[in-house]
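Narrative summary of target 7.
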Amino acid sequence: MLFIDMRLLFLLLFLPFTAFSQTVLEGKAQGTYYVIKYIAADTGSLQSAIDSIFADIDQSLSLYKPNSLINQFNEKGQVQMDTHLQAVINKSLEISKITHGAFDITVKPLVDAWGFGVHSPAERKVPSPDTLKSILTYTGSKYLKVKGTELSRTTPRVTIDCNGIAQGYTSDVIGRFLDSKGIHDYLVDVGGELCAKGRNAHQQYWTVGIEGESQRIMPLANRAVTTSGNYRRFFDSGGKRFAHTIDPRSGQAIHNNIISVTVVATNAITADGFDNALILMGVERAFAFIRQHPELQLEAGFIYKDAKGNIQEAFSPNFPK
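Modeled conformation, tokenized:
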């Protein structure tokens, strides 16, 4: 089975009467949906504060905001970072280094060339080898320079796209905001990138349902989970299906047998940053990577097609049962 719509993918436990009530905030932000659920004695709304958090992060990281900090960098090649952009850049560079470039935020011109960028063409097509070869001459985190709060590039035409990690970061920021309000039982879902803490009103861990062959329902015990898939944004050409996951090292849009990967980590920015890299690695190499880096505390579950085209699934040994 394929992953279903992310809003249906995550099955949350609800409460009968209790002294603490469950509050649900939901809406649209960052080009997707969000659902925030928390347990608190105070039923006062935090909606305006949550809206402000989304607005602040968008002003830093959104490619859709003309004067956002990320767009300022892409236009001028230099910007003074705020705390949001600095946190995302530092984490992105860390993940890029440990994955040997399988995750790289300088992938933006490649994403645009394949037609998956902010301004998507009416009809996508495979870029020419010469086009990709040219773009690869200015793709790579090695061309980014961080000095204090200043982000700059060491060669012209380098541009960045943080969409592969920004929603996970946003979930963490909202989680920390709830902590600051004395709320320690919550689940934050921004476009399918989730972080959870504490328990629901049943005094059980929040649960996540994964649509697959085993119909897994797993607890989120103070952990985060994200999913990256190739089943939504894609196009077919020449008998191949090209998905929106772009390999920054080769410039190629993925067309392997991986349908999706679900990653569990200690926080959502980590899970979100690694999920695309693990897809590019494939099942066996991804599991080997997880074994080689226990300090990352990553677990992964794959849904993929085998050599006969049958849907299969595979999970790392400590993936939540």
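The chain has a mean pLDDT of 88.
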